[in-house]
């Protein structure tokens, strides 16, 4: 099976027509392409910066971009709810993942806009979650379907993100209410320290295509997916129980190293990449396609917006 053939579907404009107009006109055809291919690359259009991307989201999704709640990485708003993509050291890879798949509710659509391409690498690699699902050994899948997976997160001023930033409030009570609504267990470890735990499904059904998709943060949030030097430093500094994030089987038992190697191999085998050009916009169906970030050199400005909360379907 060649998992790379369906990503990404490319539509190249003959002339720089405004992208928001185009997606408004071609919304139905783009939706069909998105469900088939998981992602669509739109190239050669006039985007109009972050404001233009906001308009693209409104035209395509029929609503404004979503706020970035229960966040796991630092991002800055550029315009409204259009953000910089994760601010993470340029020399490090961000492993393939599906946005906010550790949450009870996630965005179904992602929009990436390359405002400034990097000098080398810096692609947003994409991987078909239907292919990842099929590449994972049936016994490994069955284990995760039965036991689910657990995410443990620690928030502090010293390491990771402060809880106030993650939950967007200074009120402990508001955090507790937000967590109760979203199936998250809360443990206060001090005035500035919070630990949360949530058990989620590893495999989901896509609401439109009906496909089984590998949709979870069990791999990207696991400590063994971090670069060795970062992993050793963190474990030495805070110990496993206080890591900013880590994952387990849903019953709290560790996920064996060989299983994590197999999961990482499955993601990588299903992934494809392209070099960004200025004003490339990638539409991503977040449940059908995982994304990551290559390390890069030079300047790189990629804006991201999210839309269509999964809760709208329930
Ligand atoms: Fe992401």
Automatic annotation (TrEMBL):
User: Is Nucleus a UniProt keyword of this protein?
Assistant: no
Domain TauD/TfdA-like as annotated: residue spans: 9-305
Q: Name one GO molecular function term.
A: dioxygenase activity
Q: Among its keywords, does the record have Iron?
A: yes
SUPFAM superfamilies according to UniProt: Clavaminate synthase-like
Identify the cofactor(s).
Fe(2+)
Organism's domain of life? Bacteria
Family annotation (InterPro entries): AlphaKG_dependent_hydroxylases (IPR050411), TauD-like_sf (IPR042098), TauD/TfdA-like (IPR003819)
> What processes does the entry annotate via GO biological process terms?
antibiotic biosynthetic process
Keywords, A to Z, come to: Antibiotic biosynthesis, Dioxygenase, Iron, Oxidoreductase
Q: What is this protein called?
A: TauD/TfdA family dioxygenase
Organism of derivation? Streptomyces parvus
């Amino acid at each position: 099976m060649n998992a790379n053939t369906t990503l990404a579907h490319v539509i190249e404009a003959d002339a720089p027509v405004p992208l928001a107009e185009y997606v408004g006109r071609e919304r139905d055809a783009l939706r069909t392409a998105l469900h088939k291919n998981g992602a669509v690359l739109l190239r050669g259009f006039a985007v109009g910066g972050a404001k233009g991307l906001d308009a693209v989201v409104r035209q395509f999704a029929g609503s404004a971009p979503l706020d970035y709640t229960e966040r796991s990485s630092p991002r800055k708003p550029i315009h409204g709810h259009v953000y910089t993509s994760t601010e993470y050291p340029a020399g490090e890879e961000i492993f393939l993942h599906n946005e906010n798949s550790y949450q009870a509710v996630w965005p179904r659509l992602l929009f990436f806009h390359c405002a400034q391409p990097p000098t080398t690498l810096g692609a947003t690699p994409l991987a078909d979650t239907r292919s990842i699902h099929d590449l994972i050994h049936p016994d490994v899948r069955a284990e995760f379907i039965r036991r689910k997976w657990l995410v443990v997160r620690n928030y502090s001023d010293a390491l990771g993100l402060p809880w106030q930033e993650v939950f967007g409030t200074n009120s402990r009570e508001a955090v507790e209410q937000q967590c109760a609504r979203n199936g998250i267990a809360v443990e206060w470890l001090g005035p500035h320290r919070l630990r949360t735990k949530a058990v989620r499904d590893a495999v989901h059904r896509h609401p439109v295509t009906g496909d089984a998709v590998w949709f979870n943060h069990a791999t990207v949030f696991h400590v063994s997916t971090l670069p060795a030097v970062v992993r050793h430093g963190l474990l030495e500094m805070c110990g496993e129980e206080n890591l900013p994030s880590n994952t387990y089987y849903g019953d709290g038992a560790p996920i064996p190293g060989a299983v994590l190697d197999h999961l990482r191999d499955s993601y990588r085998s299903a992934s494809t990449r392209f070099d960004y050009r200025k004003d490339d916009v990638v539409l991503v169906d977040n449940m059908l396609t995982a994304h990551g970030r290559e390390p890069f050199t030079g300047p790189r400005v990629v804006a991201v917006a999210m839309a269509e909360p999964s809760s709208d379907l329930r």
